[in-house]
Amino acid sequence: MPNPIIKINNLSKRYRIGAEEKGDKTFRETIMDWVCAPINNFIKLRNLTKFKNNDLENVIWALKDISFEINEGEVLGIIGKNGSGKTTLLKVLSRITQPTNGFAELYGRVSSLLDVGTGFHPELTGRENIYLNGAILGMRKKEIEEKFDEIVAFSEIGKFIDTPVKRFSSGMWVRLAFAIAAHLEPEILLIDEVLAVGDISFQKKCLGKVQDVVKGGRTVLFVSHNMGVIRNLCKKVVWIDNGKVVQKGDVDEVVKDYEKAQMRQVDKSSYIIERNPEEIKNSSFYFNRVEIFNEKNERTTLFRYNEKLNLIIGFAGFPLTNKYSVEFHIYNELGQMVSMGASGSYHDKYFSSNVKKIKIGIGPLTFTSGRYRILLKVLSGGRYYDIWENAAGFNIIECQPFKTNHEMSVFREGACILQQSFDEIE
Ligand SMILES: Nc1ncnc2c1ncn2[C@@H]1O[C@H](COP(=O)(O)OP(=O)(O)OP(=O)(O)O)[C@@H](O)[C@H]1O
Ligand SMILES: [Mg+2]
User: Fold this and answer.
1) Which residue has the least CA distance to atom 17 on ligand 1?
2) What CATH number does residue 196 fall under?
């Protein structure tokens, strides 16, 4: 019988909307918390967060009665749409936040890689943070020293290792955080979508490292919106929606059902899609609307083979940096990515942060008949502000695959890169 290394028991987490549960801790408080916590083996999390009953209308349950177990050496993928509770689950497991009800037991040293901003002390240098994180994991100085060069080499941050991490770009932050989390040999590694940040070659390097960690028999919980990566890395998957477990089981089965559910959502959509506010997590810059047009500027979701598609995309809020870029992915009904595009990395096209409406032109569409869905991402300062999974859907209704009249472009990452344009509107 395999041993459970994590037991999650009726775990619930309630947030109050618009209210901070607690202020940031000082560095000293954080250290004291760490020192006082039993680090090496048994961690029990209990219902320490209390709310008054009269606040009920202002609360949301980010997690509701979640129970499951993870065995030692298992690589568990965690999937679910935006705002479904994935990050909250990892935050509770890594003790960044406390559960409202229920508890989780973790029988091993935990290292986590969550949002940019957790895990590092901003005033300390990269070097000092490596030692700090090692100490938190219960490692001796000599053990950390042995890993030090490997971590710095992997992170590719070179001479910036002696710079306070508050001066790091978010890309540098993620590189170092990933290098530390993966090299300091935790027994349980929690990773939240970090591979979405950074360039493709670094993402590949990270995936390779995660695979090494997995082969070394460690337990990994891995949150991602990228079903290709999930299929590649995980044998088991848990699908979370609205804070509840919808399904847990073998990767192929769960991912297939998840993707079917996403397609159903696209089916309901039309050529003007307003963003559901519940899907927007605490982001300061996000998509709020998309409209689909054909090349004659008619609103439609029906396209013929070789026709072009235009998306008019609206944004709300402001990114922290003054420029942003956008990406799109197109998925078929099997959940395979069939095409992608990126204004920044493919075309060096960046929008000023006060541009609130843009147009993406895609095509000629050289897809076979069937339904397709479009995912949109907005990137600024090396970080994804928003990922809109079911931004839009369209159908190819007539297909003449042997009569192409366009110049077929390159294939990349298994997807066909169609002609694409990115333009500012307002
Ligand atoms: N500190 C907070 N205060 C209030 N609500 C919060 C807080 N953190 C998360 N939430 C809410 O809890 C829900 C779950 O959020 P969570 O970040 O766990 O989702 P997620 O599955 O990680 O989403 P994504 O895929 O977009 O990263 C969302 O409705 C979110 O708005
Ligand atoms: Mg998240």
Assistant:
1) 87
2) 3.40.50.300
Q: What are phi and psi of 180, to 5 degrees?
A: -65, -50
Tokens of 130: 């490596």
Ligand 1 centroid distance, CA of 87 (Å): 7
- Residues in CB range of 163: below 8 A, 6 or more apart: 125, 126
Q: Which two tokens stand for residue 207?
A: 């995936």
Ligand 2: centre distance to CA 117 (Å):
13
293 C-alpha to center of ligand 1: Å?
32
For 102-126, the DSSP string reads EEEEEES-EEEE-STTSSS-TTSBH
Sign of CA dihedral 353, 426, 394, 269: positive
391, 273 contact by CB (below 8 A)? yes
For 97-114, the pLDDT digits (tens) are: 899 999 999 998 888 877
Helices (H), 273-374: 343-347
Residue nearest to atom 27 of ligand 1 (CA): 82
| Separation of alpha carbons 299 and 287, rounded Å | 19
Range of the domain at 206: 4-260
The pLDDT tens digits of the residues spanning 9-66 come to 999 999 887 655 444 444 444 444 554 444 433 434 444 444 445 455 678 899 999 9
Asked if residue 218 and residue 367 are part of one domain, the reply reads no
What is the DSSP secondary structure assignment for residue 290, as one 8-state letter?
E
CA gap 53, 270 in Å, rounded: 40
User: Does the beta carbon of 88 sit less than 6 angstroms from any atom of ligand 1?
Assistant: yes
244-250 vs 236-241, strand pairing mode: antiparallel
CATH number where 352 lies? 2.70.50.60
* DSSP-based three-state secondary structure for 161: helix
